[in-house]
Amino acid sequence: MVVFPNAKINIGLNIVEKRQDGFHNIESCFYPVGWSDALEILPADIFSFQSDGINIPGDPATNLCAKAYYMLAADYEFKPVNIYLLKSVPIGAGLGGGSSDAAFTIKALNGLFGLKISLEKQLDYARRLGSDCAFFIENKPVYCFEKGDLFEEISLTLAGKWIVLVNPELHISTAEAYAGIEPLKPETDLRDTLKKPMESWKDVVKNDFEKSLFPKYPVLKEIKESLYNKGAKYAAMSGSGSTLFGIFDEETDLSGIFNQHKVWQGYLK
Ligand SMILES: C[C@](O)(CO)[C@H](O)COP(=O)(O)OP(=O)(O)OC[C@H]1O[C@@H](n2ccc(N)nc2=O)[C@H](O)[C@@H]1O
Ligand SMILES: Nc1ncnc2c1ncn2[C@@H]1O[C@H](COP(=O)(O)OP(=O)(O)OP(=O)(O)O)[C@@H](O)[C@H]1O
């Protein structure tokens, strides 16, 4: 079985308060984007994990795909598998790439071996692997709250809009980004703001990480300003960085403008 774990962007990201468990309650809108890895899972005699493409730091045995496999193998009976991951989505990029690989491994094993794991249970397994991971189980636009792993439907459709993602190949650790934050309860309701036209989001739909990360990494602010200068209707950083995105009404090829960075562009669904 071959699947294509895609990335996400955060449209608005409010870090509301620090929790007793050390994590933060947040609110955000997750939107799937087409930048994807490729993940092949085949039944085998012994378990193995291999990856190619972008180098993933750390021991392959602790890769989120391997963790997802071992977690399900502890609770269900099925054959070992060979997992082959072709990594294209940048790491430490605010795009949830590793979380998506993990969620797609859960979904693929469930389908391949007919495990009949309910949607709720798949979401619970995903939550155990990371806060972003549960979103990729259903992989549709949602408003998220608490650790970013509880969801509410949102009637936001950006289908047919053009998105440009620019990654300056700066690895920002999620834990480090959260450590630099002073949580603050938002004054406006993100769900209400997102009902208004995209043109009105600038300066209202904010990513709280920008305030602490832009002074530290000026290139992030420069990229966001360039996206607006090139006609983006809305531009922001995704998650804890380092990827910036711009949303345009029409196809706008910016690969030449940002040729010193990694760029992915395409239509939103
Ligand atoms: C920034 C976002 O990408 C926005 O969607 C997510 O909140 C991050 O989700 P993630 O990468 O899946 O993060 P996890 O692997 O669960 O946590 C990594 C670290 O980030 C911090 N963390 C994460 C999520 C959260 N709601 N509060 C936190 O404080 C914690 O220090 C945690 O140890
Ligand atoms: N399949 C995987 N893909 C990417 N990173 C992985 C994977 N499995 C484990 N990891 C580990 O997770 C770390 C990246 O996590 P981190 O949360 O910083 O970034 P991310 O998953 O790219 O997305 P985000 O910044 O949105 O959370 C890497 O340093 C790597 O060691």
From TrEMBL:
Active site: K8, D132
Chain ranges of the GHMP kinase C-terminal domain: 194-258
GO molecular function: 4-(cytidine 5'-diphospho)-2-C-methyl-D-erythritol kinase activity; ATP binding
Pathway assignment: Isoprenoid biosynthesis; isopentenyl diphosphate biosynthesis via DXP pathway; isopentenyl diphosphate from 1-deoxy-D-xylulose 5-phosphate: step 3/6
Residues the record lists as binding ATP: P90, I91, G92, A93, G94, L95, G96, G97, G98, S99, S100
Single GO BP term: isopentenyl diphosphate biosynthetic process, methylerythritol 4-phosphate pathway
Iron found in the keyword field: no
InterPro entries referenced in this protein's UniProt entry, alphabetically: GHMP_kinase_C_dom, GHMP_kinase_C_sf, GHMP_kinase_N_dom, IspE, Ribosomal_Su5_D2-typ_SF, Ribsml_uS5_D2-typ_fold_subgr
Residues of the GHMP kinase N-terminal domain: 63-137
Domain of life assignment: Bacteria
Keywords of this entry: ATP-binding, Isoprene biosynthesis, Kinase, Nucleotide-binding, Transferase
EC identifiers of the protein: 2.7.1.148
Catalytic reactions on record: 4-CDP-2-C-methyl-D-erythritol + ATP = 4-CDP-2-C-methyl-D-erythritol 2-phosphate + ADP + H(+)
PANTHER family, sorted: 4-DIPHOSPHOCYTIDYL-2-C-METHYL-D-ERYTHRITOL KINASE, CHLOROPLASTIC
Family indicated by similarity: Belongs to the GHMP kinase family. IspE subfamily.
Family annotation (NCBIfam families): ispE
Free-text function comment from the UniProt entry: Catalyzes the phosphorylation of the position 2 hydroxy group of 4-diphosphocytidyl-2C-methyl-D-erythritol.
HAMAP family, alphabetized: IspE
Name of the protein: 4-diphosphocytidyl-2-C-methyl-D-erythritol kinase
Gene name in the database record: ispE
